[in-house]
């Protein structure tokens, strides 16, 4: 099955993952102008009134760019909605997405038919985060248009399955839009994602180390300085398993090699350690195992251009072999 026409403007088969706190209009529009889907979590715009300002700003910026660059129009943008009972803003945020006709909505931590129906009402599409086949089937039953396989090694909340295993199992029953996340930071990784059966790569951590990202300089530098061995998988910080930078855990006064377990039945955004508190994602910094492929802090457009060169070179090399 071919990708929906909404993806026709992509110049590289990539969706920039929506990263809590990190993603902002500057990063989103830079990604879209460079030819990949840019995205941000609705909850990054606080208070809720700011979300409308951001949507207006992004649409106006991309429209102006498209008018000036008719031969290389921008890719569509996406908004991430946390579909979880703890998100008291969900209804308001979805209403704003409908009002502004957001092209792509990414849903996480739950799937709801009413949210999907609202996005479908104006022709938008819904991509849903999944970590296993059971969640994937539920998401499709509730009306999701596409799936994002969040696999082992992905930044932030991540699953534990190998992308080779999960993509293969998903393709046994689903031939629609399929994205894969998990330690992808190079053009070679993007091509590998397609080779294993995904349509698009879903990349987050590499864009933390960009000039546009809303991250402290120390966070960006830690991405550059870290390797896969510096990433810790734990549910302590939110109650949901995720990947975090070892250096930030140490800075919070915790031992990354001996972290206790959290209560998985609830979202818990703070953790105490010997009288101190460290909050995800403000103090405990999320990142995927692909950080070893990120070697400098550069503009998002430059990072995407490099990925495109690597992707094209890898494809040529494979075709010539």
Brief write-up:
This protein is of the alpha/beta class and 321 residues long.
Description:
The chain has helices at 25-33, 48-68, 90-99, 113-120, 133-141, 163-170, 187-195, 217-225, 246-251, 300-320, and strands at residues 14-16, 38-41, 77-82, 104-108, 125-130, 146-150, 156-157, 178-181, 200-203, 231-234, 242-245, 270-273, 276-279. The protein is α/β, with parallel strands linked by helices and 321 residues long. It folds into two domains: 9-214, Alpha-Beta Barrel (TIM Barrel); 227-279, no CATH class. An eight-stranded parallel sheet has the order 1-9-8-6-5-4-3-2. The protein has a three-stranded antiparallel sheet with strand order 7-11-10. A two-stranded antiparallel sheet has the order 12-13. Helix 1 packs parallel to helix 2 (48-68) and helix 2 packs parallel to helix 3. The longest helix is centred in the N-terminal third of the chain and has 21 residues, at 48-68. The radius of gyration is 19 Å and the shape is globular.
Write a concise keyword list for the protein shown above.
single chain, 10 helices, globular, 17% strand, 321 residues, 2 domains, 8-stranded parallel beta sheet, 3-stranded antiparallel beta sheet, TIM Barrel, alpha/beta
Helix-strand blueprint:
Layout: E1 14-16, H1 25-33, E2 38-41, H2 48-68, E3 77-82, H3 90-99, E4 104-108, H4 113-120, E5 125-130, H5 133-141, E6 146-150, E7 156-157, H6 163-170, E8 178-181, H7 187-195, E9 200-203, H8 217-225, E10 231-234, E11 242-245, H9 246-251, E12 270-273, E13 276-279, H10 300-320
Parallel strand pairs: 1-9, 2-3, 3-4, 4-5, 5-6, 6-8, 8-9
Antiparallel strand pairs: 7-11, 10-11, 12-13
Helix pairs in contact: 1-2, 2-3, 7-10
């Amino acid at each position: 099955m071919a990708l929906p026409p909404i993806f026709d403007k992509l110049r590289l088969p990539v969706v920039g993952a929506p990263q809590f706190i990190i993603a902002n209009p500057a990063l989103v529009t830079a990604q879209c102008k460079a030819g990949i889907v840019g995205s941000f979590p609705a909850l990054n715009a606080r208070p809720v009134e700011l979300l409308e300002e951001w949507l207006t700003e992004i649409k106006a910026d991309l429209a102006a760019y498209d008018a000036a660059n008719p031969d290389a129009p921008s890719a569509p943008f996406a908004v991430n909605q946390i579909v979880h009972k703890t998100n008291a803003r969900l209804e308001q945020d979805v209403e704003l997405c409908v009002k502004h006709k957001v092209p792509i909505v990414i849903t996480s931590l739950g799937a709801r038919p009413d949210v999907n129906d609202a996005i479908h009402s104006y022709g938008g599409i819904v991509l849903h985060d999944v970590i296993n086949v059971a969640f994937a089937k539920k998401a499709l039953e509730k009306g999701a248009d596409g799936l994002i396989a969040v696999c082992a090694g992905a930044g932030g909340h991540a699953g534990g399955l190998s992308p080779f295993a999960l993509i293969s199992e998903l393709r046994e029953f689903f031939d629609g839009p399929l994205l894969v996340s998990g330690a992808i930071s190079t053009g070679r990784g993007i091509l590998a994602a397609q080779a294993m059966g995904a349509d698009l790569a879903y990349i987050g951590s590499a864009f933390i180390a960009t000039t546009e990202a809303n991250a402290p300089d120390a966070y960006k530098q830690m991405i550059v300085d870290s390797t896969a061995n510096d990433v810790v998988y734990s549910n302590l910080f939110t109650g949901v398993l995720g990947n975090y930078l070892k250096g930030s855990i140490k800075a919070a006064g915790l031992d990354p090699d001996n972290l206790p377990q959290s209560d998985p039945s609830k979202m818990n955004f703070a953790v105490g350690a010997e009288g101190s508190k460290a909050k995800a994602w403000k103090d405990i910094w999320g990142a995927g195992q692909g950080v070893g492929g990120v070697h400098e802090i550069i503009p998002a457009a430059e990072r995407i251009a490099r990925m495109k060169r690597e992707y094209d070179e890898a494809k040529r090399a494979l075709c010539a072999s």
